[in-house]
Amino acid sequence: MPTTRRKRHRILALAAAGAVAVLVAVVVAAVVVWLRQLCNLHPLLKVPENVEVSMRQKDDSKVFFLLNHQSSPFRIQFYKPMHDFLTGGTISGNYDLQPHGVLVLDEQGAKD
Predict the structure, then answer these.
(1) DSSP character for 98?
(2) What's the chain's Rg over C-alpha atoms?
(3) Is 16 helix (H, G, I), strand (E, B) or coil?
(4) Which domain holds residue 76?
């Protein structure tokens, strides 16, 4: 019986630790949202949490970097043509960013 009791206590301890981890994640997410609102910070693009977006700017030129850290594709809707620096092509409309894929885009639009 003591062995069964110890197993039960271990299971309860693991369940409690898991519940605390979930609670901490929820609180951290809420604090991040609150800080963004407080500082008037907004994401560059609406993307899932596992898609990283960063931007570099010099004068009037902006370049966006998108990295898909997911193991599944993510569909992005572009409302204006964008220049893809990696292929030299133009992206417009729906675009599926492949798993672990990368895009480097010029905000100024497609180059002719």
Answers:
(1) P
(2) 22
(3) helix
(4) 51-106
The domain total for the chain is: 2
111 occurs within a structural domain: no
Q: Which residue has the tokens 């417009």?
A: 92
Instruction: Examine the domain organization and report whether 33 and 68 are in the same domain.
Output: no
User: Could you tell me where the beta strands, DSSP code E, fall in 1-112?
Assistant: 51-58, 61-68, 74-84, 90-97, 102-106
Q: Which of 76, 77, 70 is nearest to 100 (CA)?
A: 70
- Cβ-count burial 3-38 (b if 16+ within 10 Å, e if not): eeeeeeeeeeeeeeeeeeeeeeeeeeeeeeeeeeee
User: Could you list the pLDDT tens digit for every one of the 112 residues in the chain?
Assistant: 567 888 888 888 888 888 888 888 888 888 877 887 888 776 667 778 888 989 999 888 889 999 999 999 999 888 888 899 999 999 988 999 999 999 999 876 545 5
- Do 30 and 74 lie in one domain? The reply is no
User: What does DSSP say about strands 102-106 and 74-84: parallel, antiparallel, or unpaired?
Assistant: antiparallel
